[in-house]
Amino acid sequence: MRTTEEMLDGLRVWVEHETPSHDAARVSALARHVEGQFRALGAHTRRIAGRDGHGDHLLAASAWGDDRAPVLILCHLDTVHPVGTLAANPFRVEGDRAFGPGVYDMKGGAYLAYAAFAAIAAGDTAGLRPLQVLYTADEEVGSPTSRELITELGRAAHAVLVVEPARDGGRIVTARRGVARYVVRFTGRPAHSGSRHAEGRSAIKEMARQILDWEAMTDYNRDVSLNVGIVEGGTAFNTVPAHATAYVDLRVPTPALAAEALARFEASRPYDPDVAMAIEGGLNRPPFAPNAATDALFARAVPIARRHGFTLAGIATGGGSDGNFTWADTPTLDGLGVDGDGAHTTWEHVRVGSLTERGGLLKDLTAALLADA
Ligand SMILES: [Zn+2]
Question: Which residues sit with Cβ closer than 5 angstroms to ligand 1, an ion?
């Protein structure tokens, strides 16, 4: 495995490519850079052309291996940070922390996948299963152009390892809630609020009543939460508003609770018969529910982590990831990326020591899976 210095040097280049999900050219530029690095290792690579405003996806596959199912490592190269964030938060190392946009979510983990591939490729690969590493361009916006590819590759894989960041002091992810997103548009009737108030039908008033009903679906005991994250509406102080829009994010832990919560939400009907309501959306990522195959992968990872000097604990987390698309078909373990904090913020950083610790775990766990009969 590479030294910490080598990994920081390599990671710096990846972080200094700013790659917001909606900047196709920049995300594709990093994909090309990563492709060149894999080719230098003798890997086969394939770029899947971007569409709908997103960049290219990159699939790197080992030259070794037979026709048995491959081990698949899932990574994304896009970040939530707009271009220009790097100037305010440049890549830098301060003590045991390395800062920079996307360094923790998930360029650190994405780089570990490359380093693990390099280390395995440099050893004896006779008799191993093939290894695939997928770098996608649109994870942070719900994987609209990569979902099919992820599902298809996941289905054909022996095991799936996701290098999303570790959580809460190095924990690994054994379950994630599913995510549903809705845009709800209300259409009422405009009127002058002074002279014709009674003739108006307020879209905002209707939306407000619905929001209270929706938010009441939050049930921490059942791990269900609903957030109305954005509302828009109205045109003037003195006009009864004809239009309003709400943006809703609903999180659910299991397929059964997903079915229940989605049905309840989608059954919403207006209180005011003169206001129309159009609900658009649905399940963006299905729940990654606790399951025996993931537990078995986790049990294999624990002693490997111990050899690398740390204790691995499992956690269920609220965030969705691309592992949500694969666990139902193939054993999947998530949260194998770097340790750190501040995902999606300007103080995002990785704990430098975790590059070798977590890198060692990823490499050895991958190697063990590649050696499975
Ligand atoms: Zn991520």
Answer: 105-106, 164
